[in-house]
Amino acid sequence: MAPATAASPMLGLESLRMSFGPILESLIQSGQAIAIADHRLPDDPLVFVNAAFEKLTGYASDEILGRNCRFLLAPDADPATRALVRSALAEKRPVTVEIRNARKDGSTFWNRLHLTPLADASGETAFYLAAQNDVTYELARAQAEEELRAVHARLAEGKDLSPLARAVRGAVGAWEWDVQSGRLYADARFAELCSLNPVEAVAGLPTEAFFSSVHPEDHMRVRIAVAGILRGTEFLSKDYRLVAPNGSTRWVSAQGSAERDADENLIRFTGILADVTEQKRAEEKLRIAQKAGGIGTFEFMSGFGTVDVSEQFCQLLGLHPTDALPVRTINAVVHPGDPPLIGNQGDQLDGELGHREFRIIRPDNGEARFIARRGERQRDGHTSGHRFIGAIYDITSFKEVEDKLRVLSETLEAQVQERTKERDRVWNNSRDLLAVIDSAGVFRSANPAWRAVLGFEPQDLVGGNLLDRLDVADEVGRIAVRGIPVLGLTDIETRCLHRDGGLRWIVWNTSNEGDLVYVYGRDVTAEKARAEVLRQTEEQLRQSQKMEAVGQLTGGIAHDFNNMLTGIIGGIQMVRSRIAKGRTGEVEPIMDAVVASAQRAASLVHRLLAFSRRQPLDPQAVDASALVASMEDLLRRTLGEQIDLRVAADPATWSAWSDVNQLENAILNLAINARDAMPTIGTLTIATGNVRLNAADVAGHPGLKIGDYVEVSVSDTGEGMPPEVVAKAFDPFFTTKPIGQGTGLGLSMIYGFMQQTGGHVTIDSAIGRGTTIRLFLPRDLGATGTAATASSVSPVTAPRGSGESILVVEDDISVRLLMVEVLKELGYAVLTASASTSALPILAADGPIDLLISDIGLPGMDGRELAEQARRHRPNLKVLFVTGYAAKAAVRSDLLDPGMDLISKPFEIDAFGAKVRQMIQQ
Question: What is the pTM (predicted TM-score) of this model?
Answer without folding.
Answer: 0.34
